[in-house]
Amino acid sequence: MTEVQEIRDIIVDFVRRTLPELKYQEIDTRQSMKELGATSIDILEVVSASMRKLNVKVPRDKLGELTCLDDLIQLLHTIVNEKATQ
Amino acid sequence: MLRVGYENRAVVITGATRGIGLETALAFAQAGAHCYLTYRFGSADLDEVNCRFDTIGARLPRIVQCNASSEEETAQLFEEVKKEHDCVVAWVANVSNAQLVGDFDDYHKRALFQSIEASAWPLFDGIKQIKRVFGTYPRYAIGLSSAGAGQYLHNYDFMSASKNVMETLCRYANYRLYDEDIRINVVRGGMVQSESTRLTFGPAFAALTSELEIERYQLATREVADAIFGLCTGYMDAVRGEVISVDKGFHFFDTFMRIYSDKANTDA
User: Fold this and answer.
1) Which residues of A touch B204 (CB under 8 A)?
2) How many angstroms separate the CA of residue B111 from the nearest CA in chain A?
3) For FRET with B133, which of A69, B92, B171, B217 sits at 20 to 30 Å CA-CA?
4) A57-65 — which CB contacts under 8 Å span 24+ positions?
5) Chain B residues in contact with A47 (beta carbon < 8 A)
6) What is the pLDDT of residue B1?
7) Mean of the pLDDT values across residues B40-65?
8) Whole domain around residue A60: which residue ranges?
């Protein structure tokens, strides 16, 4: 079972790589990526990089339902563990 | 009878596991091509994609995860194609991605440049990469533009700007490569009934098109795909550096006055 913290670390790492200005900054995952200064293309970058790292797929329409990074972490956590139990 | 033989020859199409990209791939596959389909998110059911090819008796495609706006990943894609083919006959840069703009506060230089990088540049990067990897240009290079390049579309500021960049560079690139064996064109597709349209404009858009009875003016994805394929059959080789509108002429009468005419005709 993949822990939430593990997924959080992966996502935060990709957020920092995509938005280098946040490299040394504490990232509050209760915020949306837009609040952190990301464009929609940055958001896709973070999601697709995280998907590849975790080897899962996220339906694109699910992305529209996400309001903050915690939502993305939770969504990926659910998908990763559903895949593991299949 | 096509003038260009596609039997077991490579055709590469980005964003091709659904919508216009998939239909384009099927059109080429039906002519015998070995299609390379890229996808980024993989939300499409890949078994279903293969099944579409199987159903028409076509060779199954190679489906490759690739971010089309990444030069590195695009280079890897063509290296992969080179393992089986010595050239790419047709390169279709279908996928695009841009920041949607809700208001003027959304105007940011970085978002605009990212949009151009993801929506205009891949056509030309692909052409350059194919030349680098194979030593020859693709015989055909097609970029996908949209109605937004020429008229107002909801929240489409940066996508429209990106498509205009692609259309302009298509004309210039044709001049630059005039003596080479390549035909570069852009297909400006009209409003299609696709998931991409739904995701871009939202579910309310579909409801409104229905209410205004616009659906009859919308295109099926296959209609745009057939036009793309048509440009690559050899019969249209003198068409180069062009932006071809594929919308059944709708851009001319996509106006308030046409809505009035439709209503007047219905009421009469």
Assistant:
1) none
2) 6
3) B171
4) A57/B41, A57/B42, A57/B43, A58/B41, A58/B43, A59/B41, A59/B43, A60/B41, A60/B43, A60/B199, A61/B43, A61/B195, A61/B199, A64/B199
5) 41
6) 74
7) 92
8) 4-85
Q: Show residues of chain A in contact with B110, CB under 8 Å.
A: 39
Say how many domains are in chain A. 1
Class of domain B10-202+221-252: alpha beta
Residues of B within 8 A of A46 (CB-CB) are none
Check pLDDT > 70 for residue B218: yes
Nearest beta carbon to residue B108 from set A39, A58, A59: A39
If you average pLDDT over residues A47-53, what whole number do you get?
A: 91
Question: What CATH number should be reported for the domain holding residue A75?
Answer: 1.10.1200.10
- Bridge-partner residues for B143, per DSSP? B93, B186
According to the model, what pLDDT value does residue B163 have? 98
The reported pLDDT for the residue numbered A1 is 65
Rounded to two decimals, the ipTM of the complex is 0.81
B43 lies within 8 A of chain A by CB: yes
What are the tokens at B229? 């394929």
